[in-house]
Amino acid sequence: MEIERAKEQHWKEFVNNADGKSIWEIKKYIDNTPMQTFIPMLEGNATTIEQKSDALRKAFFPEPPEADLTDINNDYPPQVQEPSPVSLR
Question: Does residue 42 contact residue 55 with C-beta atoms inside 8 Å?
Fold first, then answer.
C-alpha cells in the first residue's frame, strides 16, 4: 500500500513539473498502457510448418459454436401486390 502511494505521488509530481520535453514522455506512458495478453497452449506435437500453422489457426481461430435458431420462425409476411401502373395526365 505504501509503495502504491509513493508511486502515485511520484507520478503526480512528474506530471505537475512537466516541461516541453517531458510532456511527450507522459504522453508515451499514457498511450502505451500495458495490456494483459493471452497466448494459448498448442495441443499436440507439431513438428512441420503445416502442423504448426494448423495448431496456431485452431488456437487463435477456434470453430464458432452452433447458432441458436430457436427464436427464428418461418412466418413470412404476405406477398406485396403489384402496383398499379402510373399514368401521366
Answer: yes
The whole-model pTM stands at 0.35
For residue range 34-83, list pLDDT tens digits in order.
666 766 677 778 888 998 888 888 888 889 899 888 888 878 888 888 88
Secondary structure letter of residue 87 according to DSSP: -
Residue with cell 447458432: 67
Task: Say whether 85 sits in a helix, a strand or coil.
Answer: coil
The residue whose grid cell reads 452452433 is 66
The rounded distance, in Å, linking the Cα atoms of 22 and 28 is 10
Q: Are 54 and 46 in contact (CB under 8 A)?
A: yes
10, amino acid identity: H
